[in-house]
Every structure is written in structure tokens, then in C-alpha cells.
Specification:
Number of domains of chain B: 5
Largest sheet of chain A: 6 strands, mixed
CATH superfamily of the largest domain in chain B: P-loop containing nucleotide triphosphate hydrolases
Strand order of the largest sheet of chain A: 6-7-8-3-9-10
Shape of chain B: globular
Strand order of the largest sheet of chain B: 4-3-7-1-2-6-5
GO cellular component, one term (chain A): plasma membrane
Number of domains of chain A: 2
CATH class of the largest domain in chain A: Alpha Beta
Number of strands of chain B: 24
Number of helices of chain B: 25
Largest interface: A-B, 160 and 170 residues
Number of strands of chain A: 10
CATH superfamily of the largest domain in chain A: P-loop containing nucleotide triphosphate hydrolases
Strand content of chain A: 5-15%
Oligomer: heterodimer
CATH class of the largest domain in chain B: Alpha Beta
Transmembrane segments (chain A): 21-45, 51-84, 122-143, 149-171, 240-262
EC number (chain A): 3.6.3.-
Family (chain A): Belongs to the ABC transporter superfamily. Siderophore-Fe(3+) uptake transporter (SIUT) (TC 3.A.1.21) family.
Order of helices and strands of chain A: HHHHHHHHHHEEEHEEHEHHHHEHEHEEHH
Distance between the termini of chain A: 69 Å
Structural class of chain B: alpha/beta
Protein name (chain A): ATP-binding cassette subfamily B protein IrtB
Helix content of chain A: 55-70%
Chain lengths: 577, 842
């Protein structure tokens, strides 16, 4: 863990300096402890004044220790701040290249937490955790080795106590953590139940199943109580094992010292001096025990950092010359594309389709058919498992990511807006655009009505994730953004939750502004948008079942025609008692 | 300049000093003078909060060169002009500050410090009202508070009038403030008597009057039940004295009032923990004994060493002492284990009780309560806060007691051995206090910046990761700035922490055991060498005194987590204090019968008294018919539907089912009679069968299948991995439309007489809309149905369409009639018909 942290910092010279200073500081401390033996022996003898030179030695060692510790902190800070700067850049770089499919909600939260605090935590960890930990680990062994010269049996017992105490510490930590995590698991499970209970109150009340007697939640509560009691079985030994080990070590060492005294190898004053050193010998272990929760946290932080740095990355294929889009090629071509989120389970199972320049293709199909996944593959948020996605004449994997993104305008189903002004969110599409261009894009995307309604118009902040706008409104902002970008290939995922008039107009605006050269691939739900496409692709279970123009597909009277009729019927439906 | 002991302490702890120059002064009344200063450096520090005050050094009028410190509230701080005012009451006998103010001239300077000066922070949870008590001297502070209190919160201001012209001192206007001036009579309980005898539950009191009067008010508030945490009091001046010593004033007549106790939300946490209190105290005492027991072996060790020194290695009783030490060690450790085990048992019971209370509470609050808050708050209470309380019970109390008792016992013992040497042990602690004080003072300006950075980076990180797809698609704009933000933050941390690093190291060096050891050995060694101390008396110091300082400091960490746990207990307590839906005193069951007519008579409702969402609603829902609610968003459609299920209680009028007022219906009857289907579908973790049979756990598989078929979901269910026994969430996820149909099946099985459909026909899943519609058609047959619809044509066939606008019914009738007459309905119909009539086969 220590080396892991230092490696992240990357600066070898600083690490060497830090390590040597730390070694010096630990040796000085051990020296100060050992100087107690002659010092105290003299002090407790008949002529206590003999101790004075040794007191001077102790003072000198402690003072030298101060000086070296001060330098250690300085070196630690140098590494820490180097790490802070370096690490965050590394993480951001990596995040840019990880396939989006890698991000589960848990990993997302982990990444956010890592970006927010891991640099700072590791930076502080070096000075506040690593230094005292290394000190505490090395000190007892050094003292033990020094005691060999005072009385070798004592030194041996001390050296033998080191692994015993470290082992006890490790065992105690392990048991306590096991107890904590089983407690957390039991409580977490219950908490989930309670939250679910809160969310399902109307249904549960209707069902008359809200009490704690004889209900699922009541049983979960009882289980949690039992789990809490069970953890005493782990927690108490965890709490006690280190205490007993320390006491055993202390007793063993003291008994050895006294025995040496009885046998005459040490005089009384020396025995007492040694006993006092023994008490100090135990101290670093207690320090380690106190530090261990913080060390555990730091380990967690490191694990989160590595989870990101070791995540798979989408890398452009190595090539000498830069790959540039070809004007004469089809805007988009999918060649027998396969892809699955889990191995052995294909979400996209052999899709081939072509979208020519200046045309619109609508992808239609039941939910779960793989429509949105198709879009993500084109934008290379994931890499295909087999087959290839070609945008303007080249495999997406051969492009430099920035060049590929330059070819695409994307309107997502779940639109993410940044907590900035409406204007800035639109301008994101093309930071170089003029004000007139921005306004034109906004008008085409039906934003004018929103701008008029908002208190500060264009300058209104849209809130975190854009929550001060409705889902449909957010999608319109995103359409304006994509229109402003004016990329050769427009990917549109029609929002199912926002099928109102203004949104329909915005989508139609986007399709019609396509111009001569722009190609559009739209995941369409509205009959009106489907009807506008030059080509309709009916997707089912990851496969293209039918494709063609609307009249062709209706004439075919197959899956699409059935779907179309059912949708027409649904649109005219009315709730009749 | 001589500033006495206080000045030395402040200086040692790194107090900042600012020089203020008098710009102008005005006498607001003959006894109330406002002096405006130019304060170029005052605004560099942390932002000035309401009712912030400064310590001003006023020259002693009698002894030149001496200064006295007085606190003054900052009035009208203007950071742009770097100007601020202080207000002085000119009274007799005058104190040094008052004398200075009386003789003030433009251009005079005075020094102030903001060091450790408080301010007014609105307490959480927000109190129901504020009681502000004081006199003219307190007005600058009270004015600042009045400006900070929300306009809807009532404020009682009680002020003692010493001069008639006190009434002319301007007071900050507040719409709900009631100001009472009581004339001073010389009796110091005038203010206390002016505090009304009433229920002050959840009020917050701020008392800044004359010293004796403040004391009386505090006593009065205690009688009225105010918890300490909700009374902030500080004596601003002392009657009859220019300054300094208090002259004891005896108040003869003490108003005898019956002790009244209200209930304060701020005590919610204390109430929650109350049943534990005695046992926690007992545990603390027990822990103290254990801690002392754990010290005993070291004392024995010291004794052992003493005998060794006295009698050589073969001293008498060494073996016995050794054995005693072993026994004590074992007993101490075992008792500690027993104690921890006992605390875990206690906590398991308490945790169970708390969680069960939360669950019971959730079942009793009005359903509307859930729509007001995210599940995050509930999660916090049952998961994070419960864990904090768990830590408090099982560890924090014991840790704190141990961390305090052990070093104090050691110190006490060492003082009996050698007071002089024991005193040396306090030196590092004093250094620690001063150094940390200075460090806090030096870095306090950066602390607010730090938290600003933390919040900013955290929110940008969330935006960056959540919006990663957009970031990649555009790689510019606000997200492109994230890298820059991180770099800037790193620079800030560097500039802030690096200089502090040296000081922190010094603090660490001073408090480490080795430093104490050196101190003991140097001092003790010299004492032994000089014959002042016997070598044997040095032993306990070497064995026990070395880690004493570090242990005491550890108590600080324990206190931090204990405070967190108390905050957590407070949040749980607040949740348990939420008002419950009143159960009827004399429940009236529904008459037996088939159809359930529903009638709204003169119903009004508002979430707050000022703002009515619905007013004067008269409506009848007949059995076997569909009534549709339409209208623009915000018209109150969902609220009206929610009232029918008692999500909230009406504020006026009544709602009856079959002639029985909803509030008189037993809740179980109500929920059995009124069913809902929402657009937001709540599936519970469990099998498909259990989800459908939620209301009737005893339903057979045949019954469940029958309703699933009717709800058009049977075919989908049998395709799931384990059919009806598939565990939802773990084994399979349903699409929005599928989940919707499942809840329709659930409602079919529950078979309620009255059914509310809220946006149930909205597109959750356009591709399966057709099946949802089929399922709904089955569901509504034969019931009393109230449906809310966005898409008008889905309810065009309803028996009655009720058009709501601004909380009132504006139109009512069948579609065919409403479409022919001018009005809101026709406008809405025309506006939406563009999308709803598909351009089929274009």
C-alpha cells in the first residue's frame, strides 16, 4: 500500500529522499529509546549524577529526531502535492477513454468520490498516516535488535514479540472489520427494505400490510436484530485479542528482565531501566491499532483510484497517418454488428444497415430491442464485439476520438444539461458560433417558448442536471445544441416521456434542417416522425427484422405493419367505462 | 498597550487586530449614538454574518495606557466602502467604552478584534418562532436578527425601556414581529415577568439584557420548559457598575408560576435517547472503573521496580506482585469485553426499537408526506443515522470516558507523587493549546474557501461523470473547465496547507510521547541528581506519565464522533416526531353495498394557510361512471385526487364515500375501498405473484393468473425465468409499460370500489401502450373512477369531464357538450389535437 501510493506520485527522487529521511528518523527514535537503558541504570544507581551525560545524549537524540521528522514532513508534503496534481490529471484522462458501459451507478459514484477527494486524502495520508505507520512498524524491531546488545535473551523475546503482536493486531482488525461489515450488511439490507416500504406506502396501505407484525419488514427487523447480536461473537474477540497479546508480551518481557536480574546478569537498576524501555516498546503497536481505521480508509481510497486507472479503455488503433473522414462515403454503415453487455448474451446480434448522405433512417421496435445500444455503438461509447461500425468511410475504432466526435451530433434520450445558463448549454454545441447562429438553432429546436417563460430568459441557470426544465424541454436544448454543431451525422433518440406538441415540432425541425448532406439516424416512437423517414428499420431482439420505406413495409404486412396498426389504434383510444 | 491577562491570552492564540477610524457619528436619541468607521482590513476575514460582533479595546479613562475590552455588534457592514458602524448606549455610570464614545471625534482610531466572536446562526431545525429579549444595548444585535429571520416566522420582541427616548431607536421591520416595551422599574425581573405564560414549544430565545435581568429571564425560560439548546443568552452590561465587578442584587419577589412544559423539536434527539440515558451513564461509570483497573498493573509494575531498586533482584514479594498484575490485567481486559458485549446487546435492542418505530411511523403519516420528500431522507435516518447512533452506544461513550478518566487519574496520582514534576507534564499541553489556537486563527480565513472548493469540485465531479457522454460528444464548455477547476483547487490546497505543514509538525513533535519522556527525564533526572526527588518516585512518571498528553488529546476525536451521533439521533427523532394522520375517534364503517358514490362538498385545501390549492370544490362521482379531471398543469388535479385517498386532510368542506366522511372511516376501510394506479409504479422486492397478490396475500394462483390475463401481462410473466415465482429486481426487470400492467393486475385483484388513475395513461413505454390501454379498460368497468389525464382524447369518452383551473372547477360536462361551447376545455382540445391525431399513413 505504501509503495502503491508512492508509485502513484511518480516522483522517484522525492520518494527516495522521503524514505531515507524516514529511516533516519526511525533509527534516531530507536536510539533515544535504547539510550534509556544506560541512562536509567545510572539514574537508579547509587550515583545518579552519572546519568547526566546520558541525559545529554538523550536530549541530543530527541532533538536530532525532531529535526529529521521536520524534514520528513517536508519531503512528505512534496510527494503529497506532486501526487495531488498528478493523480487528478491521470484520473480525468482515463475517464475520457473508459467505455460508458463500464459505468454502473456504483462505479459512477465511486468515480465522483475519487475525483472529489482521493487526491487530497492520499496527499494527507502520506504525512499523517504513512509516516507514523512506517515509524511504528520499524521501531519495535529496531528496539528489539538493540536489546540484543543489552541482554541477548531479552532481545530475542522482544524480537519474537514483534510478529506475535503484529499478528494479533492483524487478526483483531480482521475480526472487527468482519463484524462491522456483517453489521453493515444486515442493516443495509434492512434499510433497503424500509426505503422500499416508504416508496410503496400507497400500495402497501391499500393492502393493509404496513405493520411490523407478520409482514416482510417485521421479519427483516427481527433478522437484523439477530444479526446484530451475532456480531458480538466476532466483535468481542476482535476487541480482546490485541489487548491480551499486548499484556502477554509485556509480561513475558518483564518476566525475562526479572529472571535476568535474579540470575545476576543484570543489576537491579538495569532491570528497572529495561522494564521501562519494555513499556515503551509496546507503545508503537498501540499507535498502529489507533491508526488502523484511517489506514483502512486509505486502502479504500487507493482501491477506488485503481478501479478507475485499471479500467478498460477505448484506444484508437495505432497507425502512422491520421485518419480523416471521406466525403464520398456513406455517412454510416453497420456491418454485421454484434454486441452484448454480458458475455454470451447479445443485445445486438448481427445488424447491418447503411445511411446515405442527406437521408433519414428511423429505427423502430419494441422496448428492449437494442435501439439505444445501437446509438451508443455508433458514438463508440462501447466497442462492438464483432463486425464493424463505419462512419464516413472508416471504422470508428480507427479514428482519433476527437475526430470521430466531430462527425456526430447526438441527442440522447436522457439529456444531461450542465448547471450553467441555457445559453451556455446550447453554445456547447459549437463554442465558435455567432450569437445569430445560436438563436437560429434555438428557434429551430422550439426553445423560444422556454426562453420567454424563464425568469432570466437565455441567462437562466438550468439547475443541477437541468432539473429546472422538464424532460422534453431538456431534449429541446439538446436538439439545439446538436443543430448548432451541424455535424454530418445526426443521432437522435426521441424522448418517450415527452411527446408533446413542442417537442414534436423540435424533432421535425431537426429532421428538416438536415440540409443536403447531413444524414440522420433517429430512434423514433411517434408515428409522425417514423412517417418522415426515407428508410425504416424495424429492430427486434437485436436483429433487423424488416427494413424499407413506409409504403413498402405497410404493403409487406409483416411485423412493422402490425406494430403500426397497433400504435394507430392506441393513439385513438379513449377510456370508456 | 496594557490589555491585561485577556489581551495576552488573545494575542497568544493569534487574535487578529483591525484598526477602525471614525468617519462620522450621529445621535439617534440623546442616549444612543451610532459611530461609523472606516475599516480597511476588517472585511478581509471570513464573511460577516448577521449579528456578528467584535471585541473593541477602549482606553481606560483613569489609567492612561490601559485598555478594556467590550463586545459590540457590527451594524450595517459595507464591504465595498469598507465601512461599518457600532452603536453605543450612553448611560450612567459610564464605562470606558461609553466614555470613549461620548468624547469621540472624527479621525479617532480604535482597535477591534473578530477573534472568536460569535454571530447569529439560525438554529436547525428552523424554530416555530423567535423570542428576543433585551434593551437598548441589545438593539443592534436584535435588528440584525430581525433582518435574518424568515418573514413567515413569528417574532416576539420584549425590550426594557430605561429612557423614554429609547422608543425612538429604529427597529428593523418584520411582518410578524410583535414588540413590547416594558418600563424599567429598578426591579431586575421586569423582563422575566413580561415573558408570557404560554406554550412556547419549538421557539428559540435570544436574551441579551442587563446581567441580573438576563439571569432572571433565563430562569423564567427554564420554568417555561425551554431547553438549554434553544436559549442563547449573554449579559450585555451590569447595572450600577461602569464595568467590572458584579454587585449582587437580590430579587425579593419571584413570580410563582406553574411549571409548564412544551415540546421542542430541538429535543427530539434527546427524547429518542432518553430511554438509554441512565444505562449509558451506568456504562460510563463502569468504564471508568475498568479504566482505573487497567491502570492498576502499571502501578504494580512501578511498585515492583521500587522493590527491585530497594532490595535488589531477589526482593521480597516480586512474584506475588507479578501474579497480582497478571490477575488484574486479565480481570480488566475481561471486564472491558463484558462491557462492550453488554453495550452491543443494549444497542441491538435499541436499534431494533428505533427501526421498528420508524416503520410504524411510516405507516401512520399522511401519504402526502411521502410525495414531499425524497426517499433519501428516510434512507439517511434508517441507514446512516442509525449507524451513527449504533457507534455512539457501542463505542463512543466508552471511548470518551476512557480517554478522559485514564489521563486525569494518572495526572491526579502523579501530582500526589511529585507535584512539581507532574506540573511539567502540562507544559506540552499548554504549547499544544497555544499552537493550535494560532493555527486555527491563521487558517480560519481559508476554511470557508476550502468548503467552497469542496462543494464546487464535488458538484462539478458529479456533473462531469454523469454527463460523461455529453462531455465526450462535445469536449468543451463547462465540462472542459473541470480540469482547470481541479488544477486551481490543487493550487489552493498547496498554498494553504504547505505553510501550515511546518506548524502541524511542530504541534505533533511537542505532543509526542518522546518529548514528554525527555521532559520527565531532564527535570526528574536533575531533581534526582540534586536529591530533591527519590529515584523510586520517578518510576510512576516514566511508566504512566509519558503517554498522558496524547491520551487526553484523543478524547477530542471521540467527542467529534459523539457529536455527529447526537446530530444523527436528532434527525431520527425529528422523523419520529412527524405528525400522524389522525385516526377517527368514533370510526364509522361503510354501509354494505355494491356501488360507492363519492361526494366532494365545498372542499378547500392548501399546503400552507396562505396558499390555497383547491377552493370550493363540489363534485359527485357516481358508481359505474368515469369522471376525468383535466386542466393546465398546476390547476390542482393531482391534489384533488390525492385528497380522495387522504394523502392530506381537507382544510374546509368534506369528502364522503357512501355518505361517510373520510375522516370518520377506519383507515383500513378507507384503503380497502379506494385504490390507485399511478404512472410511477412501485413494485416491491418479491415474486411476481406476491406483487400482484399484495392486497390479498391469500389469493390463489388461479385468481392471480385471472387478473394478470385481464391486465394483458400474463403472457409476459410466463416468459420470465421462473414465471409467477420470478423475483422482481433480482431475476428480472420489467419495462415501464409492463410494470404498469402489473399494478393494474394488482388493483384488479384488490377490487376497490373507488379507483383513482393518476396519469396512468401517459406513455411509460410507447411500444406497449396498447396493452396498457386494454388493461385499463378492464379495470375501470363497474367502479367509481376518477382519472387524471394529460392527453385529452384518452378521456374524451368519460361520463363527466371536470375542468380545473387555478384550484376551481370552471367547466363540467361530457366531451360532446364541452367541445361545442367556448371555454378552457375547447382551447385545450384545440391546442393538443395536433399531436394526438396522428398523421397516419402519411
Amino acid at each position: 500500500m505504501i509503495f502503491q501510493t508512492l508509485r502513484l506520485a511518480g516522483d522517484r527522487g522525492a520518494a527516495v529522499r522521503y524514505a531515507s529521511l524516514l529511516t533516519l528518523s526511525t533509527i534516531l527514535r530507536a536510539g533515544a529509546m535504547l539510550s534509556l537503558v544506560p541512562l536509567l541504570s545510572a539514574l537508579f544507581s547509587a550515583t545518579p549524577a552519572d546519568a547526566l551525560p546520558w541525559i545529554a545524549v538523550l536530549a541530543a537524540l530527541v532533538a536530532a529526531g525532531w529535526a529529521s521528522d521536520y524534514a520528513v514532513t517536508g519531503a512528505g508534503f512534496a510527494i503529497g502535492f506532486g501526487l495531488l496534481n498528478n493523480l487528478e490529471t491521470q484520473i480525468v484522462d482515463r475517464l475520457q477513454r473508459i467505455p460508458l458501459g463500464w459505468f454502473t451507478s456504483e462505479r459512477r459514484t465511486g468515480a465522483q468520490r475519487t475525483l472529489t477527494s482521493s487526491g487530497r486524502e492520499l496527499c494527507q495520508g502520506i504525512t499523517h498516516l504513512l509516516t507514523p505507520t512506517v515509524n511504528a512498524l520499524a521501531l519495535p524491531a529496531l528496539i528489539g535488535a538493540g536489546l540484543l546488545f543489552v541482554a541477548w535473551p531479552l532481545g530475542l523475546v522482544a524480537l519474537a514479540a514483534v510478529p506475535l503482536l503484529l499478528g494479533a493486531l492483524w487478526l483483531s482488525g480482521r475480526w472487527l472489520r468482519a463484524a462491522d461489515s456483517s453489521y453493515d450488511a444486515a442493516s443495509g439490507e434492512l434499510a433497503q427494505r424500509v426505503i422500499e416500504l416508504a416508496q410503496s406506502q400507497p400500495a402497501l396501505r391499500t393492502a393493509g400490510r404496513t405493520g411490523v407484525e407478520g409482514t416482510a419488514i417485521g421479519r427483516a427487523l427481527t433478522r437484523q436484530r439477530k444479526a446484530a447480536l451475532r456480531l458480538i461473537g466476532l466483535g468481542i474477540p476482535g476487541q480482546l485479542v490485541f489487548g491480551f497479546a499486548t499484556q502477554a508480551a509485556l509480561l513475558g518481557l518483564a518476566a525475562t528482565a526479572v529472571t535476568l536480574g535474579v540470575s545476576g546478569e543484570l543489576n537491579a537498576a538495569e532491570v528497572v531501566a529495561v522494564i521501562i524501555v519494555i513499556v515503551r516498546f509496546i507503545e508503537p503497536f498501540t499507535t498502529l491499532a489507533d491508526l488502523s481505521p484511517a489506514l483502512q480508509n486509505m486502502r479504500g481510497t487507493l482501491a477506488r483510484v485503481h478501479a478507475i486507472l485499471d479500467a478498460p479503455a477505448l484506444d484508437p488503433a495505432q497507425g502512422d497517418e491520421e485518419i480523416l473522414p471521406r466525403r464520398d462515403a456513406a455517412a454510416l454503415e453497420l456491418r454485421d454488428v454484434h454486441f452484448g453487455y454480458e458475455p454470451g448474451h447479445d443485445t445486438i446480434a448481427g445488424v447491418s444497415l447503411t445511411v446515405e448522405r442527406g437521408t433519414t433512417t428511423a429505427v423502430v421496435g419494441p422496448s428492449g430491442a437494442g435501439k439505444s445500444t445501437l446509438l451508443a455503438l455508433i458514438a463508440r461509447f462501447h466497442d462492438v464485439a464483432a463486425g464493424a461500425v463505419h462512419v464516413r468511410g472508416h471504422d470508428v475504432r480507427h479514428y482519433d476520438p476527437a475526430v470521430l466526435m466531430g462527425q456526430l451530433g447526438i441527442v440522447f434520450q436522457d439529456v444531461y444539461l450542465f448547471d450553467a445558463s441555457l445559453y451556455d448549454n446550447v453554445r456547447l454545441g459549437n463554442p465558435a458560433a455567432t450569437e445569430d447562429e445560436i438563436r437560429a438553432a434555438a428557434t429551430a429546436a422550439q426553445l423560444d417558448e422556454i426562453i420567454v417563460r424563464l425568469p432570466n430568459g437565455w441567462e437562466t441557470r438550468v439547475g443541477e442536471r437541468g432539473t429546472s426544465l422538464s424532460g422534453g424541454e431538456r431534449q429541446r436544448v439538446s436538439i439545439a445544441r446538436a443543430l448548432l454543431k451541424n455535424a454530418p451525422l445526426l443521432l437522435l433518440d426521441e424522448a418517450t416521456a415527452a411527446l408533446d406538441t413542442n417537442n414534436e415540432r423540435a424533432i421535425i425541425g431537426a429532421l428538416e434542417s438536415t440540409g443536403q448532406d447531413r444524414a440522420t439516424l433517429i430512434i423514433a416512437h411517434r408515428l409522425s416522425t417514423i412517417a418522415r423517414a426515407d428508410q425504416i428499420v424495424f429492430l427486434e431482439a437485436g436483429r433487423v427484422v424488416e427494413s424499407g420505406t413506409l409504403p413498402e413495409l405497410l404493403a409487406l404486412n409483416g411485423r412493422f405493419a402490425g406494430y403500426w396498426r397497433q400504435r394507430e389504434q392506441a393513439a385513438g383510444w379513449t377510456l370508456v367505462p | 498597550m496594557a490589555r491585561g491577562y485577556g489581551g495576552v491570552v488573545m494575542k497568544a492564540f493569534g487574535a487578529d487586530e483591525h484598526t477602525l477610524t471614525v468617519v462620522s457619528y450621529t445621535d439617534i436619541t440623546p442616549h444612543f449614538r451610532r459611530i461609523t468607521f472606516h475599516a480597511p482590513t476588517l472585511f478581509d476575514g471570513p464573511p460577516i454574518e448577521p449579528a456578528s460582533w467584535v471585541r473593541m479595546w477602549a482606553p481606560d479613562p483613569e489609567r492612561a495606557g490601559r485598555e478594556h475590552q467590550r463586545g459590540y455588534t457590527l451594524v450595517a457592514p459595507d464591504s465595498d466602502a469598507c465601512e461599518v458602524s457600532l452603536e453605543f448606549v450612553l448611560h450612567e455610570p459610564a464605562g470606558p467604552a461609553c466614555i470613549w464614545a461620548r468624547g469621540v471625534k472624527v479621525g479617532d482610531t480604535v482597535q477591534v478584534s473578530r477573534w472568536s466572536s460569535g454571530q447569529f446562526t439560525a438554529p436547525t431545525p428552523e424554530p416555530d418562532g423567535y423570542l428576543l429579549v433585551g434593551d437598548a444595548a441589545a438593539l443592534p444585535g436584535i435588528n440584525a436578527i430581525l433582518a435574518a429571520v424568515p418573514e413567515t416566522t413569528p417574532v416576539e420582541v420584549i425590550l426594557e425601556r430605561f429612557h423614554d427616548d429609547d422608543l425612538h431607536i429604529p427597529l428593523t421591520a418584520h411582518p410578524r414581529a410583535r414588540v413590547t416595551w416594558v418600563p424599567a422599574t429598578g426591579d431586575d425581573s421586569v423582563l422575566a415577568r413580561a415573558v408570557e405564560d404560554r406554550d412556547w414549544s419549538d421557539w428559540y430565545a435570544w436574551v441579551t439584557a442587563e446581567s441580573a435581568a438576563t439571569k432572571r429571564v433565563r430562569e423564567r425560560l427554564k420554568e417555561l420548559g425551554f431547553p438549554k439548546a434553544d436559549v442563547k443568552s449573554r449579559a450585555y452590561w451590569i447595572k450600577g457598575k461602569a464595568m467590572g465587578v458584579d454587585r449582587p442584587t437580590e430579587s425579593e419577589e419571584r413570580p410563582e408560576t406553574p411549571k409548564r412544559t412544551g415540546q421542542w423539536r430541538s429535543r427530539a434527539g434527546a427524547r429518542l435517547l432518553a430511554p438509554l440515558k441512565s444505562r449509558l451513564i451506568l456504562a460510563g461509570v463502569f468504564q471508568a472503573v475498568v479504566s482505573l483497573l487497567q491502570l492498576a498493573p502499571y502501578l504494580i509494575l512501578a511498585e515492583l521496580c521500587r522493590r527491585l531498586l530497594a532490595g535488589g533482584a531477589v526482593a521480597a514479594g516480586v512474584t506475588e506482585l507479578g501474579l497480582l498484575a497478571v490477575v488484574l490485567l486479565g480481570v480488566g481486559t475481561t471486564l472491558a469485553g463484558v462491557l462492550v458485549a453488554a453495550m452491543h446487546v443494549l444497542d441491538a435492542g435499541f436499534g431494533h426499537h428505533v427501526r421498528a418505530s420508524v416503520v410504524r411511523k411510516l405507516a401512520r403519516v399522511p401519504l402526502g408526506w411521502f410525495t414531499d420528500r425524497t426517499s433519501g431522507k428516510i434512507k439517511q435516518a434508517v441507514q446512516d443515522d442509525a449507524a451513527s447512533v449504533h457507534y455512539l452506544v457501542t463505542h463512543a461513550v466508552l471511548d470518551i470516558v476512557a480517554a478522559v478518566v485514564t489521563p486525569l487519574a494518572v495526572l491526579g496520582y502523579l501530582f500526589t507523587v511529585s507535584a512539581g514534576l507532574a506540573a511539567i507534564l502540562l507544559v506540552p499541553l499548554a504549547f499544544y493549546g497555544v499552537l493550535t489556537g494560532r493555527m486555527v486563527a491563521a487558517s480560519s480565513a481559508a476554511l470557508p474557501k476550502f468548503s467552497v472548493w469542496e462543494t464546487r469540485v464535488a458538484s462539478e465531479a458529479v456533473a462531469y461523470v454523469d454527463g460523461l457522454a455529453v462531455v465526450r460528444a462535445y469536449d468543451a464548455g463547462p465540462a472542459g473547465g473541470f480540469r482547470a477547476t481541479l488544477e486551481e483547487r490543487a493550487r489552493f490546497l498547496d498554498a494553504w496547507q504547505r505553510p501550515l505543514g511546518g506548524r502541524k509538525t511542530v504541534v505533533d513533535l511537542v505532543t509526542r510521547p518522546l518529548t514528554s519522556l525527555l521532559l520527565i527525564i531532564v527535570t526528574g533526572g536533575l531533581m534526582v541528581a540534586g536529591g530533591v526527588l527519590s529515584a523510586a518516585d520517578l518510576l510512576p512518571f516514566l511508566l504512566l506519565g509519558v503517554t498522558f498528553g496524547a491520551q487526553l488529546l484523543a478524547a477530542g476525536y471521540g467527542l467529534g464522533s459523539a457529536r455527529e451521533a447526537l446530530d444523527a439521533a436528532q434527525r431520527i427523532g425529528l422523523l419520529l416526531d412527524e405528525p400522524e394522520l389522525p385516526e377517527p375517534d368514533a370510526p364509522r364503517p361503510l354501509p354494505a353495498g355494491e356501488g360507492r358514490p363519492v361526494r366532494f362538498s365545498g372542499v378547500s385545501f392548501g399546503y400552507t394557510p396562505e396558499h390555497e390549492v383547491l377552493s370550493g370544490i363540489d363534485l359527485e362521482l357516481r358508481p359505474g361512471t368515469v369522471t376525468a379531471l383535466v386542466g393546465p398543469s398546476g390547476a390542482g388535479k393531482s391534489t384533488l385526487a390525492a385528497l380522495l385517498a387522504r394523502f392530506h386532510d381537507v382544510t374546509a368542506g368534506r369528502i364522503t364515500i357512501d355518505g361517510v366522511d373520510l375522516r370518520e372511516l377506519p383507515l383500513t376501510d378507507l384503503y380497502r375501498t379506494v385504490g390507485f394506479v399511478f404512472q410511477d409504479v412501485a413494485l416491491i422486492r418479491g415474486s411476481v405473484h406476491d406483487n400482484i397478490a399484495l392486497a390479498r396475500p391469500d389469493a390463489t394462483r388461479e385468481e392471480v393468473e385471472r387478473v394478470a390475463r385481464a391486465a394483458q401481462i400474463h403472457d409476459r410473466i410466463i416468459r420470465l425465468p421462473s414465471g409467477y415465482d420470478t423475483m422482481l429486481g433480482d431475476e428480472a426487470r420489467l419495462s415501464g409499460g409492463e410494470a404498469q400492467r402489473l399494478t393494474i393486475a394488482r388493483a384488479l385483484l384488490a377490487d376497490p370500489g373507488v379507483l383513482v388513475l393518476d396519469e396512468a395513461t401517459a406513455y411509460a413505454d410507447p411500444e406497449s401502450e396498447h396493452q396498457v390501454q386494454e388493461a385499463l379498460s378492464h379495470l375501470v368497468a363497474g367502479r367509481t373512477v376518477l382519472v387524471i389525464a394529460h392527453r385529452l382524447h384518452t378521456v374524451a369518452g368519460a361520463d363527466t369531464i371536470v375542468v380545473l383551473d387555478g384550484g376551481r372547477i370552471v367547466q363540467q360536462g361530457a366531451h360532446a357538450r364541452l367541445i361545442t361551447e367556448p371555454g378552457l376545455y375547447r382551447e385545450l382540445w384545440q391546442a393538443t389535437s395536433i399531436i394526438e391525431q396522428p398523421k397516419a399513413s402519411a
